[in-house]
Each structure stands twice: as C-alpha cells, then as structure tokens.
Amino acid sequence: MLGSAFIYLGLVIAVSGMVLVVRPLRRLGVPTRPRAAIIGALGVVLIGVGFFLPVSESRIGHVETRLDEFAPAWQFHERHAIRIAAPPARVFDAIERVTADEISLFRTLTWIRRGGQTLPKSILDAPRRESLIDVATRAGFVRLADDAPRELVIGAVMVAPAGTRGSLTPQVFGKALPPGFALATMNFRVTAEGLDRSFVTTETRVYANSPSVRRRFAAYWRVIYPGSAIIRVMWLRAIQRRATAPMTVGEGAVSRHHRSSHASRPA
C-alpha cells in the first residue's frame, strides 16, 4: 500500500537523519549537521504525505463470493493466496482449527500491536490452544457466512459512534448505518484444483461510511498494514501445514463435530 510505503520509508529516513545529526558521515555524502537535518526533515515530510494521501473507494461489479454480499464496497483492502496440496474439506477444516501458536510471528506482531499490554482474551492476545477463528468470534467478530468447504466470512465493527448500543449481527452488514461506522470483513475462500489440491485466498475489506472516519482509519491502517499482511501470509502457511500434515486417529470425527457445532449459527 502506497501510504504505508511513504510512512515507513519516511521513518527510516527521519531516523537516519537524526543519527547523522549526532554524527555526520562524509563518506555517506552527509558531512555536516545542517545537511543531516535536511535529510531528517525530508523523512518527516514523507511520513506526513503517507498519513494524508487521499483515500479511494472500490466497488464490486457483480457478486461472485459471499464476501461480495457483505462487503460490496471498501476503501481499505488486502488479499493473499496460497496453493495447498490437500482437498478443500481438509483445508477448510484446517482454517477452522488453526491456533495462534501455529502462525509464525503472530505473537510478536500482536504484542507490538497492543503495545505489550495484556488484554482480555481476543484475537490480539489469543489463548494458546484455541482455534483463532473461535477466539475471534467470541471477541468482537461475528460469522457472516459459513459455507464449508468453500468460504468462511467473519466481520467486525472497527469504529462506531460514541454511545452505540446493541449486539453485532450479520444483518448489520446489509443495512445503511448512520455516519461514523467502519466495518471490517474477512474471508477464507477455498477452490478445488483437481482431486487433492486447493487454491486458498484470504481477503480483508474495510468500509468507513463518513469522511472523518475514513481519515482516522486511514492513518491506523497505513501504520498496521505491513504487520497485518505478514500475519495473513503466515496464517495461510499455518493452514497449509495443518492441512498437509498426516491425519491423526480420531481427527476426522473431531473435525466433523467442530463444523457441526457452528451449523445452527446464522449465516
């Protein structure tokens, strides 16, 4: 994302400029402190550009996925994909069962995200051995669609006006809301590629329904985007490892029970 690139490039340049103010280095073409200060100032300008770049809106042409039904428009978006040598049912089961500890760098990046604070159990401070999807849907997210073994969609309210009351339901994502909301949707979609291969995508869309919320969320999104993208990529790799690992005795029965436990939930 362009805004994130400006912010993090600017941060590197600004920090480099501050270091060179303390100790100019002629061999780097910065022989004086005033020149180093100019470099630092350039970094600050780039950070400001990253934060204030305008936000554009995208919209689907026609509905192709369950995600399209719940998030036909968005301003903030990321998509990642992987091919897995396993059938869709096995892959979908892995999506439902992967834990935070199976996702490389997840603990480190969420620790940074929450500033090292201990939070109530949520996706940012998930229990070690619980399905991350289950943790998310107990802590702010709601299942919007659960079409095993094709697509899972979850959603959350990221920003809401002060004083907003009421429980989050799938219906919230299909109606017009007053200004001041930002809604996030995320899916995992599994497409068969032959008998024992699957193409898996995960896509996140965020729609902010007022200019002030778009500006505020843009700053937040551009800061967290690199870490978020890394988590999504590592999440897919964790799904791949679980889906291609040898099946243990009794796992099939447990998997069927895990899926059926969600069958009565509205989608």
Question: Could you name the key traits of this structure?
Answer:
267 residues; 5-stranded antiparallel beta sheet; globular; 43% helix; two-stranded antiparallel sheet; 2 domains; alpha+beta; 8 helices; Alpha-D-Glucose-1,6-Bisphosphate, Chain A, domain 4
Question: What is the 3D form?
Answer: globular
Q: How many DSSP-defined strands?
A: 7
Uncertain spans = 263-267
- What is the rounded distance between the termini? 31 Å
Radius of gyration: 22 Å
Strand order of the largest sheet: 3-7-6-5-4
| Structural class computed from helices and strand pairing | alpha+beta
**Beta-strand percentage range:** 15-25%
> Which whole number gives the mean pLDDT?
91
* CATH fold annotation of the largest domain: Alpha-D-Glucose-1,6-Bisphosphate, Chain A, domain 4
Q: How many structural units, i.e. domains?
A: 2
Q: Characterize the biggest β-sheet.
A: 5 strands, antiparallel
CATH class of the largest domain: Alpha Beta
CATH architecture group name of the largest domain: 2-Layer Sandwich
How large is the count of helical segments? 8
Folded structure, characterized:
- With about 270 residues, the protein is an alpha+beta fold.
- It folds into 2 domains: about 1-50; about 60-260, Alpha-D-Glucose-1,6-Bisphosphate, Chain A, domain 4, CATH 3.30.530.
- The protein is built from 8 helices and 7 strands, in the order H-H-E-H-E-E-H-H-H-E-E-E-E-H-H.
- The protein has a 5-stranded antiparallel β-sheet. A two-stranded antiparallel sheet has the order 1-2.
- A hairpin with a 3-residue loop joins strand 4 and strand 5.
- Helix 1 (about 1-20) packs antiparallel against helix 2.
- It starts with a helix and ends in a 7-residue tail after the last helix.
